[in-house]
Specification:
- The complex is a heterotrimer.
- Chain A contains twelve helices and no strands.
- In chain B, strands 1, 4, 5, 6, 7, 10, 17, 18, 19, 20 and 21 form an eleven-stranded mixed β-sheet that branches.
- In chain B, strand 15 and strand 16 form a beta hairpin.
- In chain C, helix 4 runs antiparallel to helix 10, helix 10 packs parallel to helix 11 and helix 10 packs antiparallel against helix 12.
- Chain C is globular and about 85 Å long.
- Chain C has one domain: MetI-like (MetI-like fold, Orthogonal Bundle).
- The chains are: A mainly alpha, B alpha+beta, C mainly alpha.
- Chains in contact: A-B, A-C, B-C.
- The interface between A and C is large, with 40 and 53 residues.
């Protein structure tokens, strides 16, 4: 009969013992942050499952039901060519949130790589990357966005690239700063002494610690991208119709008459933007508190 | 010997003719009318199946904002035919179906029409969403065209993409069946270079339909070379009726302009062809004697040969005076400062300036100033929009190339007489004189830079003077106290123009901050102005129309 | 310190050149050109070509770049194609109002944000603290133009407390005293400054609060309290002075960002400043102006960063730069 040897040192796994487990635990104690996370989750689910909730398509027009305030048939009313605004709101959410996600991801990818290279290798590499960061950070944000839209057109990929290019330096700086601090720590010296390769040191030992801060920044970054997209749509440069985005939908409110008489055009998207941005900010703050409780905001 | 030569030349001629004929055949082949929209009956059927009256009510809410389009001319123009001569294509589904049957498109089992070759009657319409009306029109069309068996595919995009797919590509490669857009007319009815001129059927040209009609081109050419309003009116009336019947491009609606006017303003003379300062010449005000106007933006190019924005032109017409103006019927006629005569087979215009016309600083306006204004356009550093004014004058090419010191076609006879000779005679040439004259003694310092430095502080002979200008903020025009023609001076003290964003115009009218403003022409704004106490609406047909273009090569 | 300064100033040069190169590259590849926006059907292709050549001569890009840099050093930024005026003149006309707006908004945000930040740090968990936390959250989450239009509707249209647009009531200004005119400008600037300053007020609140909290926890504050110093003196003389240091350094960053961020506010309120000019320039493909505005603002940002670092060094004697 085989006897399975049991390690005498085996301890019952308590998730609180792991780094991320700790973070999750502290996060869950923060009620505001949890509520925001839940709200965001609901909004996200609504955006994904909108075809199942609503019988209308985002482009279906009903000419005889234009400009109708919210009623039983159209929960959020219709716009000036008869499209159902409830459906459009959540399809727009897909685009706005999707853009925010992609921009933040690209931004973090570039930022983390550049930042780690700069922090790790120092010297000329560091100097060059820092100068590069300054170049991108010195551009007057909105005006450069507008300029790039003029040159390369107004499509979604251009928008994503522009926003990512203008904001990766911030991530790079955070990463670089963290790496500089961690690099001096003793255990890194130990790694070097042990002969572990550069790449391994970067990926396995430094990055996980930096990642936490990057994630906090990313959450806050999502909020900022949503706001930027709104501003760009106002200036006529964001995603162009007929694709709806939250910024696009709010654009109708440029007219004082619309603000006065047709509140259902702009209040729902406005609220959607406002709510998501606040929630992202709260979640980001909550994460930051959970990761580093000494850094009380 | 001579007979051999003659035979040779004859042979050459014959060969040349054959080459030309085959080229023409090739060209004609390349741009032959297509099976669907190349057939006039199909185009007419599509129009009969479009309920434009209802569209206008649905989209614009009132005939004060738009009227059903008939022909590519402004209804207020002297060249517009009798409405009874034109077909309004009133909504008639039976007629549409009959036309399609006649054209060989039979209803299939799936409810759509097919021709003898089995081609389905399916059309692709490029719709931009920047304005709501193309969407409204195309969705109405979708329903009614389905009833006569036409399959409409609506392609949604933005304005720039529609232009890029319709007007920009090479002839023969334009990728659309139908597209809709807006267009603006000038006061002169000459349609050259516009939507209906075959010469404009190029890459980037305005004509995207590719429709060729010999009579139409003949008429366009005749209109450009015939003198005399009555004769030209006859030409254009025939042309408009022809276009109304053939409809390579259909005029959907004529658009109006609406103004909100405070009740304290009387005598405001707005209209399609009304030009400043005639608009305000008879204005009297109750209360403060300064008229408050609001507009969205001015470039600050208050210079008659450089201004390219309509609003800058308003100021120029008030401050400067021109030898030719446009009257209320849209005709170009001599103004109060000059008379003119045609001679030399209508190629030469001889102007006689009135004596006693003075600039606002007291100096007399003479042919020296007239000559100066025109030669500045011909200046090698000129970069304004009026280059066409001098390019057709005889002697310009030599002057521009540097082989001549002056333009031979412009002759100053004496202090009050000057003549301009054009390369070709055309009634459209007179349009080039409808711009103000600048004072040489102030504007001439030998350089273009010096000339331009007066852009924001213009000096002219008109009934108003510009006393104050703050870029992007306001413009102050005051009555010219030393106006040379006191009988025709403005009655009020001045006009104060504020830069106002479009969205705030109506609120400004309501608060009494503006006396006069022109908001975007739509039913909401119309109702909003009507609802304001103490402000009334003035509306008139503007110079713009919306159109629907058929790609006749498809 | 001096060597550090010199080194930083020298470092700015390649960065600025890099920025200019990128901007130039963008301009060269922009589709259309200044002539494409002159949609006059009567202009023949030949005429358009002539105008195009005069307005924007076709030189190789490095030559254009060179010419521009040399001219810029002599204070000449070219001619605006649309306005036909020197770009420097144009910028000069419009930077004034943008400056007034940004400056007013900055002062407002500091005056409101910093005291409230201090208050909420010293009285944690009180009503004031919670209220300010909510407010700062709202402040950084609200889209600018949304807020602007709401304020416009409420204060300008409904309550008629403030003017609808513009920077001054010029009709009034012609016959008024100097004081009256200044007050008029101030009255017109209130709403735009509040809108522009919303985000920065919220930021100042948050930063001041966290900075104060960190300082208050330090040992020397505990010592001061143990010494028996009055609470007020402790807070204002010791804690605040130290907490304010990182805030001051932020100023170097805020000013350029306010200048470029005023685009939205100026558009809504028709405030005649740089923002509107830049957007117009892009819409009409006015390359000299676009180049000039971008270059100037980038330079200001770079200088601002330098100023922030220097201020930090001056304010905090612990910082030593080699």
């Amino acid at each position: 009969m085989e006897i399975k040897a049991r390690s005498p040192l085996r301890v019952k796994r308590d998730f609180r013992q792991s780094y991320w487990g700790n973070v999750a635990y502290r996060f869950s104690r923060n009620r505001l942050a949890v509520a925001s996370f839940a709200t965001l989750f609901i909004i996200l689910m609504a955006c994904i499952f909108v075809p199942m909730i609503s019988p209308y398509h985002m482009e279906s027009i009903a000419m005889n039901e234009r400009d109708v305030p919210p009623n039983a048939k159209h929960w959020l009313g219709t716009d000036k060519i008869g499209r159902d605004l409830f459906t459009r709101l959540f399809y727009a959410g897909r685009i706005s949130l999707g853009i925010a996600l992609v921009v933040t991801t690209v931004q973090c990818l570039i930022g983390v790589s550049m930042g780690s290279l700069a922090g790790f290798y120092g010297g000329i590499v560091d100097a060059f990357i820092m100068r590069l960061c300054e170049v991108f950070l010195s551009f007057p944000f909105l005006i450069v966005c507008v300029t790039i839209a003029m040159v390369f057109g107004n499509s979604i990929p251009v928008l994503i690239l522009t926003l990512a290019l203008l904001s990766w330096p911030t991530v790079a700086r955070i990463v670089r700063g963290q790496i500089l601090t961690l690099r001096e720590m003793e255990y890194m010296e130990a790694c070097e002494a042990l002969g572990i390769s550069d790449v391994r040191r970067i990926f396995k030992h430094l990055l996980p610690n930096v990642l936490a801060y990057v994630i906090v920044y990313a959450t806050l970054g999502m909020a900022s991208v949503i706001l930027t997209e709104t501003s760009l749509s106002f200036l006529g440069l964001g995603v162009s119709p007929p694709t709806p985005t939250w910024g696009n939908l709010i654009q109708d409110a440029r007219d004082l008459l619309v603000i006065k008489n047709k509140w259902w055009y702009w209040v729902p998207p406005g609220l959607a933007i406002f709510l998501s941005v606040i929630c992202f900010n709260l979640v980001g703050d909550g994460l930051r508190d959970a990761i580093d409780p000494k850094m009380k905001r | 010997m001579t007979s051999k030569l003659t035979v040779k030349t004859l042979a050459l001629l014959l060969a040349a003719l054959m080459v030309m004929a085959s080229l023409a055949a090739v060209a004609a082949e390349e741009f032959a009318p297509g099976p669907k929209l190349g057939d006039k009956r199909v185009r007419q059927a599509l129009l009969y199946a479009l309920d434009r009256e209802n569209f206008i009510l649905a989209q614009y809410g009132s005939t004060d904002i738009a009227k059903v389009g008939l022909a590519p001319l402004s209804p207020t123009s002297w060249a517009f035919p009798d409405e009874s001569d034109l077909n309004a294509y009133a909504y008639d589904l039976d007629k549409a179906a009959a036309l399609l049957d006649e054209a060989g498109w039979t209803l299939g089992e799936d409810g759509y029409r097919y021709n003898a070759d089995g081609l389905k009657l399916s059309v692709k319409w490029l719709v931009y969403e920047d304005s709501p009306w193309p969407v409204t029109l195309s969705s109405m069309a979708y329903d009614s065209w389905k009833q006569i068996g036409v399959d409409l595919v609506i392609d949604r995009m933005d304005f720039n993409t529609v232009a890029a797919m319709s007007m920009d590509p090479e002839p023969g490669e334009k990728d659309f069946d139908i597209y809709t857009m807006g267009f603006s007319l000038g006061a002169d009815p000459d349609p050259s270079g516009g939507l209906f001129d075959y010469e404009a059927f190029t890459a980037g040209g305005f004509n995207a339909s590719g429709y060729y009609n010999e009579r139409s081109q003949e008429l366009i050419k005749a209109g450009k070379t015939t003198f005399g309003t009555e004769e030209r009116a006859a030409i254009y009336k025939e042309w408009a009726a022809l276009m109304n019947d053939e409809v390579p491009t259909s005029i959907v609606a004529y658009r109006s302009e609406i103004w909100g006017v405070n009740d304290r303003v009387s005598g405001l003379d707005l209209g399609t062809y009304a030009e400043w300062p005639d608009v305000i010449r008879d204005v009297t005000l109750e209360g403060d004697q300064i008229l408050k106007l609001g507009e969205t933006s001015f470039d600050g190019k208050f210079n008659p040969i450089y201004a390219d924005k309509v609003y800058d032109q308003w100021i120029n017409y008030c401050v400067f005076e021109a030898p030719i103006i446009v009257n209320d019927e849209g005709e170009y006629v001599a103004s109060s400062i000059a008379d003119y005569e045609l001679s030399n087979e209508n190629k030469t215009y001889t102007f006689t300036l009135k004596e006693g016309v003075k600039f606002s600083d007291g100096e007399p306006l003479t042919t020296e100033d007239f000559y100066f204004t025109y030669t500045m356009i011909a200046h090698p550093e000129y970069t304004g929009p009026r280059l066409s004014s001098v390019m057709n004058i005889e002697g310009y090419d030599e002057y521009a190339a540097g082989t001549a010191d002056t333009i031979s076609g412009i002759q100053v006879v004496d202090e009050y007489t000057i003549s301009f000779t054009f390369k070709d005679a055309s009634p459209a040439n007179i349009v080039e004189f409808a711009y103000g004259i600048v004072p040489k003694h102030i504007y001439d310092d030998g350089t273009m830079e010096g000339f331009l430095s007066h852009n924001m502080s213009p000096v002219g002979s008109g009934p108003l003077v510009l006393t104050d200008y703050a870029p992007n903020q306001f413009i102050m025009l005051e009555a010219n106290e030393s106006y040379w023609d006191p009988d025709n001076a403005v009655k009020i003290d001045g006009v104060y123009i504020t830069i106002v964003p479009d969205e705030s115009k109506i609120a400004a009218l309501e608060l009494g901050e503006l006396d006069v403003a022109m908001p975007a022409a739509n039913i909401d704004n119309l109702r909003a102005i009507e609802a304001i106490d103490g402000v009334h609406v003035v509306s008139y047909l503007g110079n713009g129309y919306t159109y629907m273009c058929f790609n006749t090569l498809h | 310190m001096r060597t550090y300064l010199i080194r930083r100033v020298i470092q700015i040069i390649p960065v600025f050149l890099g920025i200019l190169l990128i901007l130039f590259f963008l301009m060269e590849h922009a589709p259309g050109g200044p002539v494409s926006t002159m949609m006059d059907p009567k202009l023949t292709a030949e005429q358009k070509a002539i105008l195009s050549e005069r307005l924007d001569p076709k030189l190789p890009i490095h030559q254009k770049f060179f010419n521009w840099i040399i001219a810029a050093f002599q204070g000449n930024l070219g001619y605006s194609i649309k306005h036909r005026r020197p770009v420097t003149e144009l910028l000069g006309d419009f930077i004034g109002p943008t400056f007034i707006l940004s400056f007013t908004s900055l002062i407002l945000s500091m005056l409101i944000g910093i005291p409230i930040g201090v208050l909420s740090a010293t009285q944690q968990r009180s009503l004031a603290d919670n209220a300010s936390t909510v407010f700062s959250l709202v402040g950084i989450s609200m889209p600018t133009f949304f807020f602007g239009l709401l304020l416009l509707k409420f204060f300008a249209v409904d309550l008629r407390l403030f003017p609808l647009y513009g920077m001054r009531d010029n009709l009034l200004a012609r016959n008024a005293t100097w004081l009256a005119r200044q007050l008029d400008v101030a009255w017109h600037t209130v709403l735009p400054a509040v809108v522009l300053g919303l985000a920065s007020t919220a930021s100042f609140m948050r930063y001041t609060r966290s900075s104060m909290l960190e300082v208050i926890r330090q040992d020397y504050i505990r010592t001061a309290r143990a010494k028996g110093l009055k609470e007020r003196v402790t807070i204002y003389r010791h804690a605040f002075r130290n907490a304010i240091i990182p805030i001051i350094t932020l100023l170097g960053f805020w000013i350029p960002s306010l200048l470029s961020g005023a685009v939205m506010t100026e558009t809504i309120f028709a405030y005649p400043g740089l923002g509107k000019i830049s957007v117009d320039a892009v819409n009409t493909r006015d390359y000299p102006v676009i180049l000039g505005v971008n270059a100037m603002l980038s330079l200001l940002t770079l200088v601002g960063a330098l100023v922030a670092d220097v201020l930090y060094a001056i304010a905090d004697p612990r910082i030593k730069y080699e």
